[in-house]
Design brief:
This is TetR family transcriptional regulator. By secondary structure, the chain is mainly α. The chain is built from 9 helices and no strands.
């Protein structure tokens, strides 16, 4: 009985997340209410508050569903034991673009994040959370790049912190532009687009330069302690 109750609770949580995705996509996050999400999900508002503290918590859980299918590849690229971190990163980036192009749920969630979310009013706190997620993403990319450097896959003097910012911005730019104007086959072009940015990592412009460090960098190619 307890197992069944846990499974039912998980099913309700998924039901609420699916409903929130539809409501946020139709109305925008700021205009949508939790009452409307509850109605769409066919549950009470109390059920929503059982699973989520507020709209920000619900929104972040919706975004987390995007990360989970890619997390295994992300962790592999960050692992010092991974023999091919750059290959893992390439596979991760291609998969991210392909999912955006081919999976309606991923497409809708990215569209909400890029074009239907205002960091105003009750969503002011979401801006801080998104800033934290962005910084974490930069740090994880830098970690993966440093692993690739250590494996001889990238230049030994690569400025991993600056390269991470560039790679992150490139991928977000591709996603945002395609969502706004989907005038090409993103899934078909994904490998070439990813190879383009990986080639950029070998540019002399991304090599370490004395006195030109990114904020928070400790003065070496690898952003780690010790």
């Amino acid at each position: 009985m307890a197992r069944r109750t846990k499974e039912e609770a998980q099913a309700t949580r998924v039901q609420i997340l699916d409903a929130a995705e539809r409501v946020f996509h139709a109305q925008g996050v700021s205009r949508a209410s939790l009452a409307e999400v509850a109605k769409e999900a066919g549950v009470s508002r109390g059920a929503i508050y059982w699973h989520f503290e507020n709209k920000i918590d619900l929104f972040q859980a919706m975004l987390e569903r995007l990360r989970l299918p890619l997390e295994e590849l992300a962790r592999a690229s960050e692992s010092e034991d991974e023999p091919d971190p750059l290959g893992c990163m390439r596979e991760l980036l291609i998969k991210a673009l392909t999912r955006l192009a081919c999976e309606p749920q991923t497409h809708r969630t990215h569209d909400i994040l890029r074009y239907k979310c205002e960091y105003t009013g009750e969503l002011l706190g979401l801006r801080e959370r998104m800033q934290a997620l962005s910084l974490e993403c930069d740090q994880r990319i830098a970690k993966a790049l440093s692993n690739a450097v250590n494996k001889g896959q990238l230049p030994s003097d690569l400025d991993c912190a600056r390269a991470a910012v560039c790679l992150h911005a490139y991928m977000e730019g591709i996603e945002s532009n395609w969502l706004l104007v989907p005038n090409f086959d993103l899934a078909q072009q994904a490998p070439a687009l990813v190879d383009t940015v990986l080639d950029m990592l070998r540019s002399p412009a991304l090599r370490l330069m004395t006195g030109c460090q990114m904020p928070g960098e400790v003065g070496c190619a690898v952003r780690t302690e010790g």
